């Protein structure tokens, strides 16, 4: 008895973790407040709410395409490639040039027809190839040399590359916004009073297969297996016969191709571009990748769509804060999310390898 | 003998130095000693969307000065270009405006500044020129319409722009308190607008003119909803979708075209319909941009211009001849009426230089103390008597023009009576 008492006395006391408890209450309170806000807006005007949601998802799908490229590269070499947004910007300019050259009708919208689809598909392939080759060149010329340098060195190099690409965009497009040609069908359709832009379906028709294709490549193919092996331990992968340099180049090619696809889709849907559009959208896409869980492909898509949705609702419903506050709202949500789920929505908490 | 030669050499060198110093003094222009050659700085955004308007203004001012024999009284006058925009920003840039202000002060031969185009840039430059130890240095703007630069407006205005408590700023254009009102009155009286979305671009100028429009529109019985447009937004579909639900029949764009105005107008037409269905009204921040005028979505848009349009100005014989000369020299009409307002600002500066002692302080005092500067209608490029109020720096000529975009060009609809 005395022994058991002694043993019980050595057991650690169960303490109420007030910090975790408070965090949980705060989290539920915020979620409840968001749910109430959504409910009030939906009840106030369901059609307005749904149309704003569709607009948000459409924009979010574009962010997702850019975020995929960020996540892919980060997943393999843990580099935040800040030049990715500017690569996307070059993609918008290149695809606009291809479409304009194909039709010879700069600054005039071209209705989608059979020829339009051909031009669209050709532009998609060319823009993907263009951005992939630039990304591979950047990796070969800059990042590869810094593979074993402290992490800060490639990060700063990426920032430098971002400025170089911006400068190219500035010389190419000048500083103002420029009207770009589109071959997508114009107008919108009404489903139960909800206005849906026809370009929305084209965006979804591109984003969903791209996500499926990326997931298939990473999870089912030999190259994907090598990518995952490189991500886990490059030295071990090398010992197993994986050509690490080639796999990293392949990853950059895929990331670049995604930037090219995103560039074409942005150019076709938004129909204007600026040389600094990559900085803004790159930042949003990076946020999306972090929100979804950086390194996770479905997470990048989820993060992108969520940010688009938040923006759409904030700007398009009666009790939204409006465009003046959109960035503040988005980043407040990101900060809150990181407080409660540091690894992001679909990210996995990992320990730093030592 | 040798000593004499040495002494003569020293004397000759001293004399040569004195002559050179005197020559430098008269040609370089010391603002404090009364010079015969002076410089007028021209501070405009020469890059980005405002490039065409700024180039026209520079060309018109250069032509006018050339026709005046490059003189103001006994002073030889030259213009010096200062670009307050950057290629990266594509419009006026705050850091560049501040740098230019310091450069104006540092250039000892410069006695006055013509500019700026943007009120936000003027807010940065006026206090720097105001505190110039050899000044204050005069600035005359042809395009700043924000009321707070010269009259009571936001908290602390206009005093906070003049740290020395002496005025050094004047303008030859009507202010936004008149412009916003005129646009709202036109919206209800001529266009029959009942429900308007009033947007601003979050800049000083945009917020000011949007507020004036919204206040007057409300007073006139128009239902008003307000919002901001973010120049860096992907698009404005959600913003206009909300407006569509609110059944607006008018959109007022308080801001400048440089702030992604092209995308804004495109999305407005896409979601709300063309400018006949839902009226699009813009202030002078949307005037003088060929890029905007040529957009199919701009067709039928209304604009207010705080002055007279080119066609009205051309009715004056002096201005008509000047415009003919301009076209003969540059092969086209000015891109914006602001080009002629630039000439008007230059006329004020030249008149002040002519009457002054050639110092910065002297030039400023001619405009902003005593009886001020007057330009008679027979010579004023605006075709009417021009007088600057020495107490405030505002101009007596208060005009407002309603324009519309037709066939890719800005066309004058009518002059609007300003109360």
From TrEMBL, chain A:
Q: How the protein sits in the membrane?
A: Multi-pass membrane protein
Name the InterPro entries for this protein.
Answer: ABC_transp_permease, BCAA_transport_permease
Write out the transmembrane intervals.
Answer: 25-43, 49-75, 87-106, 118-140, 152-172, 200-218, 247-266, 286-313, 325-344
**CDD domains linked to this entry:** TM_PBP1_LivH_like
Q: What is its main location?
A: membrane
The yes or no answer to whether the keyword Transport is present is: yes
Q: Where in the cell is it found?
A: Cell membrane
The alphabetized UniProt keywords are:
Amino-acid transport, Cell inner membrane, Cell membrane, Membrane, Transmembrane, Transmembrane helix, Transport
Q: Which family does it belong to?
A: Belongs to the binding-protein-dependent transport system permease family. LivHM subfamily.
Please give the name of this protein. Branched-chain amino acid ABC transporter permease
UniProtKB/TrEMBL annotation, chain B:
**One Pfam short name:** Peripla_BP_6
> Could you say which residues form the signal peptide?
1-23
**Alphabetical list of Gene3D superfamilies matching this protein:** 3.40.50.2300
Cite the Leucine-binding protein domain residue spans from the record: 38-369
Asked if the keyword Signal belongs to this entry, the reply reads yes
Classify the source by domain of life.
Answer: Bacteria
Which residue ranges run through the membrane? none
Q: Which UniProt keywords apply?
A: Signal
User: Mind telling me which PANTHER family this protein's record contains?
Assistant: AMINO ACID BINDING PROTEIN, LEU/ILE/VAL-BINDING ABC TRANSPORTER SUBUNIT
Q: Which family does it belong to?
A: Belongs to the leucine-binding protein family.
Q: State the name under which the record lists this protein.
A: Branched-chain amino acid ABC transporter substrate-binding protein
List the top taxonomic levels of the source.
Answer: Bacteria, Bacillati, Actinomycetota, Actinomycetes, Micromonosporales
């Amino acid at each position: 008895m005395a022994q058991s008492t002694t043993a019980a006395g050595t057991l650690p006391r169960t303490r109420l973790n007030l910090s975790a408890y408070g965090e949980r209450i705060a989290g539920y309170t915020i979620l409840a407040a968001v749910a109430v806000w959504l409910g009030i807006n939906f009840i106030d005007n369901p059609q307005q709410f749904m149309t704003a949601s569709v607009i948000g998802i459409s924009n979010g799908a574009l962010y997702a395409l850019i975020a995929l490229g960020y996540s892919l590269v980060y997943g393999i070499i843990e580099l935040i490639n800040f030049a990715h947004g500017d690569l996307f910007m070059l993609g918008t300019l290149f695809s606009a040039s291809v479409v304009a050259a194909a039709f010879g009708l700069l600054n005039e919208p071209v209705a989608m027809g059979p020829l339009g689809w051909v031009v669209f598909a050709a532009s998609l392939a060319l823009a993907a190839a263009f951005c992939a080759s630039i990304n591979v060149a950047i990796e070969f010329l800059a990042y590869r040399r810094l593979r074993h340098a402290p992490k800060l060195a490639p990060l700063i190099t990426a920032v430098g590359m971002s400025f170089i690409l911006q400068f190219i965009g500035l010389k190419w497009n000048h500083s103002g916004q420029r009207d770009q040609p589109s071959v997508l069908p114009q107008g919108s359709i009404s489903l139960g009073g909800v206005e849906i832009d026809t370009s929305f379906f084209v965006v979804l028709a591109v984003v969903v297969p791209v996500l499926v294709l990326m997931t298939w490549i990473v999870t089912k193919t030999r190259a994907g297996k090598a990518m995952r092996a490189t991500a886990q331990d490059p030295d071990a992968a090398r010992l197993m016969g994986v050509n690490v340099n080639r796999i990293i180049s392949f990853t950059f090619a895929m990331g670049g191709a995604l930037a090219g696809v995103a560039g074409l889709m942005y150019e076709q849907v938004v129909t204007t571009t600026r040389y600094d559009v990559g900085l803004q959208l790159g930042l949003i896409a990076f946020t999306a990748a972090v929100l979804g869980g950086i390194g996770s492909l479905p997470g990048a898509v989820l993060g992108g769509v969520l940010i688009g949705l938040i923006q759409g609702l904030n700007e398009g419903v009666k009790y939204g804060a409006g465009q003046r506050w959109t960035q503040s709202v988005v980043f407040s949500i990101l900060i809150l999310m990181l407080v409660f789920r540091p690894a992001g929505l679909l990210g996995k908490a990992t320990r730093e390898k030592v | 003998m040798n000593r004499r030669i040495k002494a003569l050499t020293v004397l000759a060198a001293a004399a040569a130095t004195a002559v050179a110093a005197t020559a430098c003094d008269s040609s370089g222009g010391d603002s404090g000693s009364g010079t015969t050659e002076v410089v007028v700085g021209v501070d405009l955004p020469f890059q980005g969307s405002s490039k065409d308007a700024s180039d026209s203004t520079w060309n018109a001012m250069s032509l006018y000065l050339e026709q005046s024999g490059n003189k103001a009284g006994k002073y030889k006058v030259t213009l010096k270009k200062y670009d307050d925009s950057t290629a990266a920003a594509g419009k006026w840039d705050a850091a560049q405006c501040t740098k230019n202000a310091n450069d104006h002060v540092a250039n000892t031969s410069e006695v006055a500044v013509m500019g700026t185009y943007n009120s936000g840039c003027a807010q940065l430059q006026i206090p720097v020129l105001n505190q110039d130890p050899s000044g204050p240095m005069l600035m005359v703007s042809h395009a700043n319409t924000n009321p707070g630069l010269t009259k009571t407006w936001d908290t602390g205005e206009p005093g906070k722009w003049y740290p020395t408590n002496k005025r050094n700023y004047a303008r030859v254009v009507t202010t936004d308190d008149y412009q916003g009102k005129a646009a709202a009155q036109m919206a209800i009286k001529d266009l029959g607008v009942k429900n308007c979305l009033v947007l601003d671009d979050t800049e000083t100028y945009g917020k000011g003119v949007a507020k004036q429009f919204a206040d007057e529109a409300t007073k006139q019985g128009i239902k008003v909803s307000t919002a901001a447009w973010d120049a860096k937004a992907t698009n404005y579909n959600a913003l206009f979708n909300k407006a569509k639900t609110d059944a607006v029949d008018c959109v007022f764009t308080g801001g400048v075209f440089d702030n992604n105005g092209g995308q804004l107008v495109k999305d407005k037409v896409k979601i709300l319909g063309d400018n006949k269905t839902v009226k699009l009204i813009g202030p002078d921040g949307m005037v003088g941009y060929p890029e905007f005028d040529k957009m199919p979505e701009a067709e039928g848009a209304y604009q207010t211009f705080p002055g007279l349009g080119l066609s009205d100005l051309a009715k004056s014989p002096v201005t008509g001849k000047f415009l003919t000369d301009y076209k003969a020299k540059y092969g086209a009409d000015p891109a914006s009426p602001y080009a002629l307002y630039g000439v008007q600002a230059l006329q004020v500066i030249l008149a002040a230089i002519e009457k002054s002692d050639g110092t910065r302080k002297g030039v400023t005092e001619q405009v902003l103390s005593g009886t001020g500067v007057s330009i008679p209608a027979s010579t004023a490029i605006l075709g009417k008597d021009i007088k600057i109020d020495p107490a405030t720096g505002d101009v007596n000529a208060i005009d407002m023009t309603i324009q519309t975009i037709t066939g890719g060009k800005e066309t004058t609809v009518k002059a609007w009576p300003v109360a």
